[in-house]
Amino acid sequence: MSAAAETVQERQAKLKGLGTSRKRVEDARFTQGKGNYVDDIKMPGMLFGDFVRSQHAHARVKSIDTSAALALPGVIAVLTAKDLEPLSLHWMPTLAGDKQMVLADGKVLFQGQEVAFVVAEDRYIAADAVDLVKVEYEELPVLVDPFKAELPDAPILREDIADSTEGAHGPRRHPNHIFTWEQGDKAATESILDEAEVVAEEMVYYHRTHPCPMETCGSVASMDKVNGKLTLWGTFQAPHVVRTVASLLSGIAEHNIRVVSPDIGGGFGNKVGVYPGYVCSIVASIVTGQPVKWIEDRMENLSATAFARDYWMQGKIAATKSGKILGLWCHTTADHGAFDACADPTKYPAGFMNICTGSYDIPTAYLAVDGIYTNKAPGGVAYRCSFRVTEAAYFIERMIEVLAIKLDMDAAELRAINFVKKEQFPYQSALGWEYDSGDYHTAWNKALEAVDYHGLRRQQAQQVEDFKAGNTRKLMGIGLCHFTEIVGAGPVKNCDILGMGMFDSCEIRIHPTGSALARLGTISQGQGHATTFAQILASEIGISADDITIEEGDTDTAPYGLGTYGSRSTPVAGAATAMAGRKIRAKAQMIAAYLLEVHDNDLEWEVDRFVVKGAPERFKTMKEIAFASYNQAIPGVEPGLEAVSYYDPPNMTYPFGAYICVMEIDVDTGVSDIKQFYALDDCGTRINPMIIEGQVHGGLTEALAIALGQEIAYDELGNVKTGTLMDFFIPTSWETPNYQTDYTETPSPHHPIGAKGVGESPNVGGVPAFSNAINDAFRAFGLTHTHMPHDHWRIWKTAKQLGLHG
Amino acid sequence: MSKKNITLSVNGQTHTTEAEPRELLIHVLREQLEITGPHIGCETSHCGACTVEIDGRSVKSCTLFAVQAQGKEITTIEGLGNPDKLHVLQEKFKEHHGLQCGYCTPGMITRAHRLLEENPNPTEEDVRFGIAGNLCRCTGYQNIVKAVMAAAEELNQPEAVA
């Protein structure tokens, strides 16, 4: 046999399995313009839908006159809440246990809210008709400040639930209050704060921003009235959940709905939720009997779908004089906008914000989060993060810096004193999590050494002296961050979305000639699943990744899964892939035993084959076994070679990392210049180092955007001030630096291959690193904390307030 | 609105079609000619996903009326290479992981193509400045820059000239 001539190493390399920087199989179509995104879909008779949106942030809708629009040639229909009401589709449930208007039902609650849906023969006619719909409004007082929501003169926003004192997450104390979520031991934490030698306090605001993927949201709905089947293509990060929701909402049986996520042009959390546009395209297709496409434009995207963050985090941290942290207290005021449409597991109304003790062994802690309604767009999605983990990491990493200032201590040293130690894992945090594995000190020391941390501090001190002496107008900031993430939601026992447990799945078919097809419940939006999941499988079943096709996103063919967000694909679907692969291998072993006429215990697995123990010349390769499974009548064994796994993870995974940013600030212009960025990530077992590095570059650039300028800002009337890419900051190649990446590898003990997930780490850790660098630049001049986003104007203003402009 | 007859030469092929005077080139390309490589990302000419080449210049086709392209030579991503022979830039983007979701990629490669036509020996700074009109949310640009530099180097090899 020719294969026998190859060494084990050669056969291993051929698999392109775990640890290989395999080139992406997706790239051939994307580089040639042959991707298939939702707006590329074209069907005979397809109509276009477009929204009439509210220009007011809070107003009563007195009347809607659609006659002029309907009179325009090419306009097929104009839907309003009145048309949807008989179908009970004028409101829809949100992912957070609230409900949301699909089309304005009597009033509007945020600027850009959907009021009517125009359906026309093409997008130009639809846009013309939008202008012809006359809506009469009566303006109401606007609430944009969550701290004013419960004042006596505050307008009541949600009249539909004004009298309800019980919400989806417990008691409501005011009509504009959504929930209070408490974790930890309040009394114990407060008594520690009372008695501690040192207490540092700060209000840490993580401003409102937006995931803003390059492709906006959209859908194409096609109701086939002959067969009674609805097909819905769209920008869905969780296609199976969309199918279930569509069935529950429309009353169409779930087997008659097919949801397809085609190629998705970036998601970052924007495409987890269910939006009015999806619902309206479905209704419009049912009403007209023709396919209906809805694609939002950028302004609609930024002002109406899926904001992120907007957490006001009041913090107190108690420590000894020598820097040992004793307790952490946090009260968060969460601005949720007009409807609570957060994308969080049901039992976690503030997501995993209770990871806010971070990488530190803090024995006692307390967290309370108050959700508040305001006249802003709904959302609260996890923008490249696992359910509020970015907020938590930013909070603790700012609080550590604030404490370091109070203690007059080096912030790197303060971190090292308080890290959870390697031998403490699995570690029970004060706020209820069990960290699976970590080695923070090793990662931290490696990072400090890599950048010559002490040298940087000396350089910084010299620059402060030079500044004071009038020899430079520039200051240097060193931004430190050691973050711990919690990803891979999650165990079904405590994580579900709309009642659907957050497992995930993989189904594998091995073909007779020894190649394979695997389908998963997740959906890639650029992460390269077709490349990396094949690698996991290659290592498990000994078939080259090049011979394995990965499919996702079509609910008629893929097994049920909860989708891709919260860095859950590798921890959950990746685990399902490995487990399904192991089932294949178990059956393959029985077949090999039959073929080799030995007991299956007499076989051992070696890369791509089963070998008879002690007789290495006797073996059957997976390819031979695959063929045999289709053409041999093996007693007691079914023909074929297939497996499916629905994987319910026993725990989350806890990736971590150490980031250091060196920034230079021009005091007179406020311009910041990133001099160096070092990022060490520990995501457990590394599947494809090239893709990991790419994820880190991208996540860091999104972090740079958020920390240094990107925001969704409202004026006092509730007007969105950052509705286009002119005002909403996305870094270009010009202001983005080259990043230096590094890693340690601490496998997850409970994941079948030890992998933890990485896509969101750089955003979670990057934002504090950038922000800490800006804050640190001014530490020598008395600054404790200044809010993000640190755009040039705000930096200039900070310098001015510190008296640095002379 | 009355339609005008227009003739566009796209990727060496002549297309005659009708468009309203207000119709954007990107819509005519994508919806009438079914050339869906160029994408729409912002409608305000900031993101560059719709970048095409017109008579040797990079143009954002979301802010140009189709009638303005009457009689012009247009090149899109589909005209740069084909499955049998990819353009060097397409090869290098694959090799250096210069793309993730792929949405900005056609515009980015089309822009990089023009950049290298105009400046065959760019520095890293030239590349970063030259593609700054094209936004990417996934890659952080580091590998895009690497891919463009690698393509420039390969195109400058003597054997590649032929």
Topology, element by element:
The complex is a heterodimer of chains A (806) and B (162).
Chain A lengths: L7 H8 L11 H5 L15 E7 L5 E7 L1 H5 L3 E5 L1 H4 L6 E3 L5 E3 L5 E2 L5 E7 L2 H10 L1 E6 L26 E2 L2 E2 L5 E8 L1 H10 L2 E12 L8 E7 L4 E6 L4 H12 L6 E4 L15 H13 L3 E4 L2 H7 L2 E13 L5 E13 L26 E10 L5 E3 L7 H19 L3 H8 L8 E2 L5 E2 L4 H11 L2 H16 L5 E11 L11 E2 L2 E2 L2 E7 L5 E5 L8 H13 L6 E5 L16 H28 L6 E4 L2 E4 L2 E7 H10 L10 E6 L8 E11 L5 E11 L6 H20 L31 E4 L17 H17 L14 H10 L5
Parallel strand pairs in A: 1-16, 14-15, 17-20, 18-19, 27-28, 34-35
Antiparallel strand pairs in A: 1-7, 2-6, 2-8, 3-7, 4-5, 9-10, 11-19, 12-17, 13-14, 13-16, 17-18, 21-22, 23-33, 24-25, 26-27, 26-32, 29-30, 30-31, 33-34
Chain B lengths: L3 E7 L2 E7 L5 H8 L18 E4 L2 E4 L12 E3 L12 H8 L9 H14 L5 H7 L11 H14 L2 H4 L1
Parallel strand pairs in B: 1-5
Antiparallel strand pairs in B: 1-2, 3-4, 3-5
Helix pairs in contact in B: 2-5
Structural account:
The complex is a heterodimer of chains A (806) and B (162). Chain A is α+β, with helices and mostly antiparallel strands and 806 residues long. Chain A has three domains: 2-35 and 504-647, Aldehyde Oxidoreductase, domain 4, CATH 3.30.365.10; 38-141 and 216-264 and 272-304, Aldehyde oxidase/xanthine dehydrogenase, a/b hammerhead (Aldehyde Oxidoreductase, domain 3, Alpha-Beta Complex); 307-488 and 652-801, Aldehyde oxidase/xanthine dehydrogenase, molybdopterin binding domain (Aldehyde Oxidoreductase, domain 4, 2-Layer Sandwich), CATH 3.30.365.10. In chain A, 28% of the residues lie in helices and 26% in strands. Chain A has 19 helices and 35 strands. Chain A has a seven-stranded mixed β-sheet with strand order 3-7-1-16-13-14-15, with helices on both faces. In chain A, strands 11, 12, 17, 18, 19 and 20 form a six-stranded mixed β-sheet that branches. Chain A has a four-stranded mixed β-sheet with strand order 23-33-34-35, with helices on both faces. The longest helix of chain A has 28 residues, at 569-596. Chain A is globular, with a radius of gyration of 28 Å. Chain B is an alpha+beta fold and 162 residues long. In chain B, 34% of the residues lie in helices and 15% in strands. Chain B has six helices and five strands. Chain B has a five-stranded mixed β-sheet with strand order 2-1-5-3-4, with helices on both faces. In chain B, helix 2 (88-95) crosses helix 5. The model of chain B has no long low-confidence stretch (mean pLDDT 96). The chains are: A alpha+beta (806), B alpha+beta (162). The interface between A and B is large, with 56 and 60 residues.
